[in-house]
Amino acid sequence: MKQVSALMTALLTGAISFGVMANTPDFAHLSTSGYGEVIAKPDMAEFSVRVVETTMTAEQAKESVDKVVSDFLSELKKQGVHVDNINSSNLYLSPQYHYPKDGKPELVGYRASRTVSVTVNELEKLNQYLDIALNAGINQVDNIQLKVKEPAKYQEKARVEAMRDANMKAESLAKGFGKKLKGVWRIDYNMPSTQPVIMRSMAMDAKVESSTYQDSTMVIRDRVDVVFQLD
């Protein structure tokens, strides 16, 4: 049994060693990581709002929530918001109970809620749409995400900066050690995801000031790892 275990250990060690050797060049080389970032100003947004109502009966709660959502959607369409830029969720309905110290739980009403998400292609209209939500009876903002319409363009700029950074580092290191770069042996790249600017959740009784998003900026980053062969 000990011989079998020793054999398995030897085989596994050999496999790991072979894998490491296969990914390690057998010539003089240096590895660098290049980083790049671009500052972009958001030009669009997505926001999610919710209406929550609690009433004595399930029918009343549903009716109240559905009316608020219907009024909100109707007004958005009047303002020219395309139906493809609006997404409303199904009704969520749950009973509400009071739990006395002694005795059984008591049903005290029903809570209903629905969520509506809107894509805003013109950032300057964001406050206008939030005002419409407030006037329709929406009572909660889940989040506001500020974005750019052409993220690939900014990502490409950040990638170019990352490549430039990797090359500059490699040239500086090689020169510092009295070497010259012979060429690129390996490039590793995994594009990072672009993170939107997310505003905090808030109650609809506190209006969102335009300065909180119109002056915001997004940092779009990229990275590339390169192995250079030395001459």
TrEMBL record:
Segment forming the signal sequence: 1-22
Domain of life according to the entry: Bacteria
InterPro entries tied to this protein: 26kDa_periplasmic_antigen (IPR052022), SIMPL/DUF541 (IPR007497)
Keywords linked to the UniProt accession: Signal
Coiled coil location: none
A Pfam family hit: SIMPL
NCBIfam families: PRK11087.1
Protein name per UniProt: Oxidative stress defense protein
